[in-house]
Amino acid sequence: MPQAASSPTDPIGVFDSGVGGLSVLHEIRRALPHEDLLYVADSRYAPYGERSREEIVARATLVTERLIAHGAKAIVVACNTATGAAVCELRARHTLPIIAMEPAVKPAAAHTRTGVVGVLATSQTLASHSFVQLLGRLGGEVEVLVQPCPGLVEQVEHGELRSDRTRTLLAAYLGPLLARRADTIVLGCTHYPHLRPLIQDLVGPAVTVLDSGAAVARQVHRRLAEQALLRPPAGRPGGERFWTSGDPARVAAVVAELWPTAVTIEPLPMAQTALSDTG
Ligand code: DGL
After folding, report:
1. What is the pLDDT of residues 109-154, one digit of tens each?
2. What is the percent of the chain where pLDDT is above 70?
3. Does domain 105-211 have CATH number 3.40.50.1860?
4. pLDDT higher than 50, residue 279
5. Which residues, 6+ apart, have CB-to-CB distance to 103 below 8 Å?
6. Active-site residue identified among 14, 25, 76, 79
7. Ligand 1: centre distance to CA 20 (Å)
8. Cα–Cα distance, 242 to 225 (Å, whole number)
9. How many CA atoms lie within 13 A of 141 on its CB side?
10. Are 86 and 153 in contact (CB under 8 A)?
């Protein structure tokens, strides 16, 4: 789809199925303090991991178009599940930079001392072509144990960052990885870094927990620099604007736990597609 020429002062658009991508937004804000950031939490349709590839493509397409309509000069798909399902379609449709997630399996393979790495992600991500290709590129030098984590995205969406139920779920998912001597755990879903204190507590100090938020922020910086689209550092610091396809009051209560400043959550216009929603 042809796009109007972007300007360095245009904002960066970021989206996820819900509040998970705020873990990536944090890193982008840290790396690029002068940029304006737009964020869409597609909460009405979360978790994407329970949806078909076609449904995820439909939502990712619509949300990307809304961000572009608000002037985004680049899109960050702050969701591993949407990356696996939809990034090829988004890049085929749009010419602006589209930066996506890749679970931190390569850094984990370089870091492990036991030769065993564990990956927590949604079933959709673990089954995606891009993830299978990523594992193939490691060449079998380390053992990669994959662990789907049903229910964990919902715990974060409900703001249950420290509850007993969240701890029980995490213990069940991490236990088999630790039993097989994994010493490096990859958080392959952008919701999971919000649970890092609980995860680190469960695995203990000898196990390293990695995510790819900072690497994605560096990639955003690189892509904008290549295209002369970095906002000049002079002037005011960057701001943020947030939308959700879900209930703004409910999402605001969770965002208040996850974002350091007070924000307003706006309803996402034209959020409905023909898909069933989760209310
Ligand atoms: N944050 C998304 C990810 O990185 C969550 C997936 C979902 O909604 O199931 O995979």
Report:
1. 999 999 999 999 999 999 999 999 999 998 778 999 999 999 999 9
2. 95
3. yes
4. no
5. 80, 119, 121, 125, 131, 134, 186, 187, 188, 212
6. 79
7. 7
8. 25
9. 12
10. no
CATH number for the domain running over 12-101+214-272: 3.40.50.1860
Distance from Cα 52 to the centre of ligand 1, integer Å: 13
Instruction: Please report, for residues 63, 156, 224, the alpha-carbon distance to residue 35 in angstroms, rounded to integers and kept in the order given.
Output: 20, 27, 11
Element (H, E) at 148: strand 143-148
Q: What phi and psi, each to the nearest 5 degrees, are found at residue 107? A: -60, -35
Separation of CA 81 and ligand 1 centre (Å): 5
Q: Residue 213: what residue type?
A: G
Each residue's pLDDT tens digit, 180-219: 999 999 999 999 999 999 999 999 999 999 999 999 999 9
Residue type, 111: H
Sequence spans of domains, the chain: 12-101+214-272, 105-211
231-245 pLDDT tens trace: 998 778 999 999 999
Atom number in ligand 1 closest to CA 51:
9
Amino acid at 178: L
Has residue 271 got a pLDDT over 50? yes
Q: What Rg, from alpha-carbon coordinates, does the chain have? A: 18
List ligand 1's pocket residues with C-beta within 6 A: 16-17, 20, 46-49, 79-81, 122, 125, 153, 189-191
